[in-house]
Amino acid sequence: MKQTGKKQVNHLKRLRASLAILFFVPILLYFVDFTSALPQEVHTLLHLQIIPAVLSGAVGIIVLQFILVIVFGRIYCSAICPAGIFQDIINRLFCIGKKKRKGAWRFSYHKPLNILRYLLLTVTVVTAVFGITTLVVWLDPYSNFGRVATNLFRPAVMWGNNILADVLMRLENYSLYHVTIHTVTKAGLVSGIIAITVFVALAVSRGRLFCNTLCPAGALLSLVSRYSIFRISFDEEVCNNCGNCERSCKAEAIDSKNMKIDTSRCVTCFNCTSACTKKSLRYRFRPPFLKDRPSVADKAGTVKSGSRRSFFATGATIAASLPVISTIAQYSDLPDGDAVTAEDNIDYKNLPPVTPPGSVDLERFKDKCTGCHICVVRCPTQVLRPAGFQYGFDYLLRPHCAFESSYCNYECTVCGEVCPVHAIRRLDKEEKRTIQVGIATFNISRCIVYTEGTDCGACSEHCPTQAVHMIPYEGTLTIPQVEAELCIGCGGCESICPVRPHRAIVVVANNEHRQVAPPEEEEVKEYEIDGFGF
Predict the structure, then answer these.
(1) Best label site of 124, 351, 390, 529, fewest CB within 10 Å?
(2) CA gap 23, 491 in Å, rounded
(3) Which DSSP symbol is given to 514?
(4) Nearest C-alpha neighbor of 228 from the set 263, 265, 262, 280
(5) Helix axis angle, 186-206 relative to 141-148, nearest 10°?
(6) E strand residue ranges, 355-430
(7) DSSP string, 230-259
(8) Predicted confidence band of residue 159 (pLDDT cuts 50, 70, 90)
(9) Is the pLDDT of residue 346 over 80?
(10) What are the sequence ranges of the domains in the chain?
(11) Half-sphere exposure of 443 toward its Cβ, with a 13 Å CA cutoff?
(12) 299-342 pLDDT, tens per residue?
């Protein structure tokens, strides 16, 4: 019987670890993949994350996650959430070379900080309903992991590639090439350092304290997991109070002296069942109406009515929260707001950010984007960059189009496809070609045609809609002119303009995106060729 129980425990822990690897490795590679070698479909794993699902209004995914929690416990935190798995990796690395008491078995039971975690959850939900997602940006575990992967892991991989490329070139092997890191900004780097510092400090000192105190997803799931059907429980007749389970519980949820387990904090990692020498801890069918210490009435099948009422009350609370989720995730249609035209008086020092195509308008984008930076790393032209304080605190870490060295591809729709919170709407190629995120504005006093009397025309040559075209200026010289009704604000003109430090043509953002008519296709003329056609 003991051998059978041991195999079962190992099987559960290995199954959990296998699921964690299955989710974590593709997500990590998707963030650090600078060659775009991974298939685009990997982004589906990002849409399973709790906070993005809530913000995007993915009711089906939310219901699925709650079903998993109510049946199996907080398996999401130990096998699906990349931030949770990352904390487990930190804990495992910290334990290398250490004895059990100083390494893996270093935890002890602590009372839950319920006031703090549920206060943070309440404030996060209330502010999100009113369109303020600052707390979501800083507390969402997925987004924090995304900033670590984008601003720390990805550059490290790229630097490693460049070092290896140098070594291979000395051996006359040119299979690798140098890559330039464009996507890391100061704000992004600092946010990544802060996130990884918090993860390491809390994981090493208190295990899953972040998940059970600061994380809004963990607090939300704790409301359900306390009533999970399958749970870890004590067999009091077998337990010898050795305390191994308590010292191995990274959630600090096991009180071995009183043989109690706080299922609201348990992340179903099965470390305790593996550490138990007497096999007195078992993961089994244990509905919420059954006590941890079975009484005569329980054994006879009598249901504890108070627990049952609490169970159904929690279920009703979750069901009532779905309309709130829909409110948070509501969409706006493309507005018909006024756009900035080339004739307006532009203050170039205080321009608003150019938000990605599909973000609809500035306010909606600020309300929904959590700054996970997946669109930044997957953008083929690397035109998206995390913002610092140049656009205000409420836009901090959100991506914007930086046209200083790149442009938005005319038919690219990647950012909308990968965005897990749908802050960037999915667009098809035809719709993308007609979304106007801004309008190019031309400043003749900066143009080299005016200042140096020389030909240029680079902006016109790189305009995909011919909104920028050349008109006669002086003598044989021509100068750019912008047709605002054709411009989509892709930044092709600004990125190629040779004037430094301030460009002669700059894209000024539309606070509300507009739709423009697609450019007319040139008529293809057919010619009859006589003879050889010379």
Answers:
(1) 529
(2) 36
(3) E
(4) 263
(5) 120
(6) 384-386, 399-401
(7) EEEEE-TTT-----HHHHH-TT--EETTTT
(8) very high
(9) no
(10) 2-307, 348-515
(11) 16
(12) 434 434 444 554 444 555 544 454 455 444 544 333 333 434 34
Question: Coil, strand or helix: which one is 399?
Answer: strand
Would you give the distance in Å from CA 531 to the centre of its chain?
62
Helices (H), 33-98: 50-56, 59-72, 75-79, 82-95
| Structure-derived torsion over alpha carbons of residues 460, 466, 472, 478, reported in degrees to the nearest 10 | 0
80 touches 21 (CB < 8 A): no
Q: For residues 463 and 453, give the distance between their C-alpha atoms in angstroms, rounded to a whole number.
A: 22
CA distance 363 to 124: 18
What is the per-residue pLDDT for 102?
66
- Alpha-carbon span 154 to 378, nearest angstrom: 12
Our measurement of the distance from residue 180's CA atom to the centroid of its chain's CA atoms, rounded to an integer in Å, reads: 23
Nearest to 214 by CA among 84, 314, 316: 84
CA quadruple 201, 207, 213, 215: dihedral, nearest 10:
80
pLDDT of 33 above 70: yes
User: Higher confidence at residue 409 or residue 305?
Assistant: 409
What is the rounded distance in angstroms from the CA atom of residue 468 to the CA atom of residue 480? 6
pLDDT of 428: 93
CATH for 348-515, options being 3.40.50.720, 3.40.50.2300, 3.40.50.1220, 3.30.70.20:
3.30.70.20
Largest CA distance in the chain: 105
Distance CA 233, CA 286 (A): 8
Confidence of residue 5 (pLDDT cuts 50, 70, 90): very low
**Nearby residues of 262 by Cβ (< 8 Å), 6 or more positions away:** 112, 226, 251, 253, 254, 255
Six-digit token string for 448: 């080299």
Give φ, ψ of 250 to 5 degrees.
Answer: -75, -15
DSSP labels, 180-225: ---S--HHHHHHHHHHHHHHHHHHHHHSSHIIIII-HHHHHHHHHH
CB 511 within 8 A of CB 334: no
User: 479 phi and psi, to 5 degrees?
Assistant: -135, 150
